[in-house]
Amino acid sequence: MSVRIRLATSLDRDDIRDVHLSAFPECESQLVAELAANLLNEDTDPETITLVAEAGGQVVGHIAFSPVTADSRNRWLGYILGPLGVKPEHHKAGIGSKLVKSGIGQLSEKGVNVVFVYGDPEFYRRFGFSVEAATRFLPPYELKYPFGWQAMTLHESGTNERAVQLSCAASLRNPALW
Fold first, then answer.
1. Domains of the chain
2. Which are the contacts of 27, defined by CB distance < 8 A and separation ≥ 6?
3. Is the pTM of this model over 0.90?
4. What is the pLDDT of residues 138-168, one digit of tens each?
C-alpha cells in the first residue's frame, strides 16, 4: 500500500483526532487527541510542523513538531516531537518511521539545532535520539518517566555545559502530558 506524507491542514482536524483516539490506550487517548488537534491550529513562532500520512485516501497517521525555547539562548532553535500516532490497523507498515523521518528532514532544512522527544527509547533510538543528548536540557515539566526524555542534535550550536530550561508551546503546557 502506498503511503503519502503531507502537511496537515485544519480540514484534517477530525481525522487527526481519530488517529490518536484509536492509537492510544483509552486512559490517555482523549488527552493526546486534544493535544494533536490544538497543535494543528496553534500559532507558534517558529511555526509548528504537523504532518499526516495517507493510505488509500484516508489519514492513517499523524505527527507534530512544535518549537521549544531555551532560557538565555540566542540564535538557538529547538523542536519537540509529539504526538505521533498511527491507526492500529496500519502498525508495522513503517508509517510512524516515515512520519518521523519526514519531519526531521524538514527541521534539518530549517536549521533546527535540537529535536526532543518524550517517548519510548527503544523506538526513537533508531532515528538517532538518545537520553545522553537530552541531559543538558531540562524538560518544561517534571516527567513521570524520566528515561523517556531524549534528544537528537541536528545542527551544533556551540558548547554550553550548563543545564538549560526549556519552554514549550501553549498546547503542551499541561503537566498531565509529561
1. 3-177 (3.40.630.30)
2. none
3. yes
4. 999 999 999 999 999 999 876 566 788 999 9
